[in-house]
Structure formats: C-alpha cells, structure tokens
Prior knowledge:
Elements: E1 5-9, E2 15-19, H1 24-30, E3 49-51, E4 54-56, E5 70-75, H2 79-84
Parallel strand pairs: 1-5
Antiparallel strand pairs: 1-2, 3-4, 3-5
Amino acid sequence: MKSKKLKIKWPNKHITFAYEGDDWFQNASKAGINIPTGCLTGSCGACEIDVNGETIRPCITCVEYKNSLQLNVDFTCDPFWEENH
C-alpha cells in the first residue's frame, strides 16, 4: 500500500510535499528552513516544531498523517524566552 502524499505548509509560506515516513529535516531544507538541532536523540527539545497544533521532535519523528493531508508547521515558542529575552 502506497503511503499518503502530504502537503506541508511552513512558517515562511513555502510548501513542500512528503510521504509518510519521510524525514522532517530534509523537507524543511527543501522549504529553505533550518530546524535547529541539539542531541538528535529527542532528549533536549532543541528541534521541536508544532505540526497542526501538536509539538513534535523531528529528530525522532517522521512525517506522518494526522487526520489531514495538509500539515501546518509552526515553530514552538518557549514562554520563558518570550518573557525574559
């Protein structure tokens, strides 16, 4: 069975297309976005992004279908940094 083709809308208004199981970092690169990295094991949270309102860590999560063929990506906001910096 072929995986679903998903439309990804990035914060910079670029759009990429991916299949379930594709790598988030490669798709971000296609959109001209560099997702920051840290440990690459899911421990530090440096790479967190919001996908359709759910925070994920792309270093340990592949692109996946979330009840919609369009995935809207936003950068995760840290309230500490917004308040203090």
